[in-house]
Amino acid sequence: AALAGDPEVKKEGPCSGRSEWKLEVRLEDNNTFRVRWEADSGRAGQDWRLTLRKNGTVIASAVRTTNADGEAQLNLRGVRNFAGIDTFSGFAGRLGTSETCSGSVRI
Q1: Using CB atoms within 10 A of its CB, is residue 41 exposed (0-12), middle (13-18) or buried (19+)?
Q2: The sheet that has 71-80: what strands, in order across it?
Q3: N or C: which end of the chain has fewer CB within 10 A?
Q4: Tens digit of pLDDT for each residue in 11-51?
């Protein structure tokens, strides 16, 4: 289990096309995680299916349209922190294209 006060874990990388992804996980003072999964294409108005998993189980999945900055995000708070190391992984696919993004962090 992560301990309150541990630094936030962040990772980012390239997608299969021109976009980039970012995954951030932080343990809050109430011993729950705050998680943000993002696909950034740099272009507004694109639809992405974003999926977030914790230890292999889907905890969120939604279609998001990129904002004016070209970002599509899933933001979660209150994700429970159980004993042991947790692995968060994200997958994103731009609708109507073959572009995909995937990344993971351990905390």
Answers
A1: buried
A2: 9-14, 20-27, 32-40, 71-80
A3: N
A4: 999 999 999 999 999 998 888 999 999 999 999 999 999 99
Going across the sheet that includes 47-54, the strands are 57-65, 47-54, 87-94, 100-106
The model's pTM is 0.90
Give the per-residue pLDDT at 37.
Answer: 98
Residues 6+ apart with CB under 8 A from 97: 17
Tell me the CA distances in angstroms from 29 to 6, 8, 17, 34, one per residue in order: 10, 12, 37, 10
φ, ψ (nearest 5 deg) of residue 11: -140, 150
H helix runs in the chain, sequence order? none
Task: Name the E strands within 1-107.
Answer: 9-14, 20-27, 32-40, 47-54, 57-65, 71-80, 87-94, 100-106
